[in-house]
Amino acid sequence: MNIIRTRILGSHYVGLFGICNDSICFLPPSIEEKALKSIETTLEVKAIKASIYGSSLLAVFAKMNNKHAFIPSYASEKEIETIEKEIKVKIINTEQALGNMFEPNDNGAMVSKDLQKRAVDEIKNTGLQVTQMNIGKTDVVGSCIVSTSRGFLVNPNITKEEAEILQNTFKIKGGSSTANTGDTFVRNSVFANAKGIIMGENTTPYEINRIEEALEGTA
């Protein structure tokens, strides 16, 4: 897989700023052109500038797989239109930080126990197998999982039983690691697709190896 360590808008918590699938990636409007181009090259995607709720923290509020972008109902019409030009949008009716509450791939979605029932039902209506539970000693499951069509990376605090549930939900293998020198909320520090991985500048060589193995599905 292609891999880079980088910063976005001066931050090594790069996962907060990007959502992607195997063909497109949405990044903040104010991202540096050099960073945008390097992300495009690494993920082998078309990069588009976008915001959600006026924020650059796209992954806090939204997630995507190869079929849909899952966007909260409080996103503006203009923000939705920008994303809708590139991929089918599924509006999720919620007041919560949607991206922190769940993580999908093309097969399934892990959803926080704290996500409102209406929102959970709307995610299920896209055809995904939904598992609703908290994992790795946290309720913000969308912040502690990175899932692609190839493999998943998860918070190292998960149990063996939780790892098996992730495999059954996503229908892929994965593994656990920290990122950015000890960050357990790995989605804040990493985003990826089946072709490449973007990780924070402070990610150690040991973490890089663990993350690559997890997202290749070989861990």
Give the topology.
Blueprint: E1 2-6, E2 19-20, E3 24-27, H1 33-43, E4 46-49, H2 58-61, E5 63-64, E6 69-72, H3 77-84, E7 89-92, H4 98-101, E8 102-104, E9 108-111, H5 117-124, E10 129-132, E11 145-147, E12 152-154, H6 160-170, E13 174-176, H7 186-189, E14 190-192, E15 196-200, H8 205-215
Parallel strand pairs: 1-15, 3-4, 6-7, 9-10, 12-13
Antiparallel strand pairs: 2-3, 5-6, 8-9, 11-12, 14-15
- Strand/helix succession: EEEHEHEEHEHEEHEEEHEHEEH
The name of the CATH superfamily reads L-arginine/glycine Amidinotransferase, Chain A
Structural class: alpha/beta
* Poorly predicted parts: none
Major sheet details: 3 strands, mixed
Give the N-to-C terminal Cα separation.
14 Å
Determine the mean pLDDT: 97
Number of domains: 1
CATH architecture: 5-stranded Propeller
| Mass-distribution shape | globular
Strand content: 15-25%
For this structure, what is the CATH class? Alpha Beta
> Widest sheet: strand order?
1-15-14
Structural overview:
This protein has one domain (2-215): L-arginine/glycine Amidinotransferase, Chain A (5-stranded Propeller), CATH 3.75.10.10. It is of the alpha/beta class and 219 residues long. It has a 3-stranded mixed β-sheet, with helices on both faces. A 3-stranded mixed β-sheet has the order 2-3-4, covered by helices on one side. It has a 3-stranded mixed β-sheet with strand order 5-6-7. It has helices at 33-43, 58-61, 77-84, 98-101, 117-124, 160-170, 186-189, 205-215; strands spanning 2-6, 19-20, 24-27, 46-49, 63-64, 69-72, 89-92, 102-104, 108-111, 129-132, 145-147, 152-154, 174-176, 190-192, 196-200. The longest helix is centred in the first third of the chain and has 11 residues, at 33-43.
